[in-house]
Give the backbone structure.
Amino acid sequence: MGQFLYLYRMTDAARQENMGSPERAQQSMQRWMAWMNELDKKGHLKDRGQPLERTGKVVRGQQKTVTDGPFTETKDLVGGFTLVEARDIDQAVELSRGCPILEGGGSVEVRPVMKMDM
Amino acid sequence: MELSEHLFRRESGRLVAALTRIFGVHNLALAEDVVQDAFCRALEVWKVRGIPDNPGAWLMAVAKHRALDIVRRERTARTFAPELTRVLESEWTLAPAVEEAFAGSTIRDEQLRMMFSCCDRRLPEEVQVALVLNVLCGFAAPEIAAAFLTTRAAMEKRISRGKKTLAESKRLFDLADAEFPARLSAVRRALYLLFNEGYHGASAEAAVRTELCAEAIRLTMLLVEVAQTASPETLALAALMHLHAAKLPARLDAAGDLNPLLEQDRSRWDAGLVQEGLQLLDRSASGDEISAFHVEAAIAAAHATAHSVEETHWDAIVGLYDRLMTIAPSPIVALNRAIAVGQRDGPEEGLESLHAIADTDRLGHYPFYPAAIAEFERRRGNLDEAREHFSTAVRLARSPVERRYLEARVRECGAERIRT
């Protein structure tokens, strides 16, 4: 078993579109709850994670220049993350296929957490 | 924790009403943005942390917070609600004013004022109804367009036209205004149309239509809650809606196909709604004026309390239609009266009444006029005539739901003819 981080990415436009109406917001919410509960029930949910604000700062280079978000250069902003447990990357990918963000034009980045005992 | 049905949609109307109180109706778009933003936050936070115990309160807290933020940041550059200008200027009074706008009774009153503002006589009725559905019920343009079988672009145009008029009015309608009685009847009329759209409407989806009826009832009950708007005529309208809505489970099957009154399984009628409807009808009898809604509700009550078609008091129903013809005469009322006459006296008399309708020109495009003739012809055994009239009705069908229903009748006539 290993741990994997799901990074949820979505453009602002797609995010707005998914919120197109209160009914759609509700449907989206229900799909997320169902998916999360499913992961939880099967014992894959290690940490539900946290949502991230869509603003912030970037500190860059030796000059330590600080720039403001929103990060217009990044099309797909990370909107949140979740930590899951899976047998291997294949299973983690398979599980991520149920994520409702995919229906709304977003993506899930699946990253293995580095194992320290190796 | 489960999300209650239509939570976001329901909260949308309430939050927009509260925010409009603060921002002013000319800033309706800003209020809508704030609500949208609150929904976005909810979605992102709830999906990882779970749904809070009181989702409505959570959304309201976010909206309040944003409202305070916006007023603080923009109060020098932007004009908000004219009646609150002074109050919003000072930090001492700002927070209590925002708090007050989100209090339960204020939200209800603001929803009422919004409803009255949407039913501006400068706007055609179809725009008024679309506006009510969008602003007060939280339906988006594509959803309303689907329910009314029109295009998204046409509906967006209709709604933006309505909003432009709303924004020009600067403040929401004041119930103390001299125009109140006229506006109240415009509001009732719009809610009646909204209900009818659900009950008779074009959408093939039973769920959509049930929702339209439920929204019409919810908004009418807001009028019933407040003494000033709860006139006998309002109560009669509420009664009428409850008594009709009670039949919805039997009227539409899951595919949205029509089941006419005479063929409905009456055990599927909602007894609770019938009871509420009858109580409202009792309460509506307090004035000395009998409105068309009163008579229509009485007709609906006569059907709702009859255990079968045979046990229906058709004589009383014909009498009520006669009454309706004196208060609000129309070819449609005359048509329904003729159908009741046919139920009471037989198909010959029914046909006679149908042919006696004065201005049948206005029924020329109404599929249920030839359908009624066809039905009585069928009962007389004139199957060829019946099939011909049903076929005429099919050509006039205004929606797939109506077409499917009428086509089935044509087929039945054919099948019956083979049997005989």
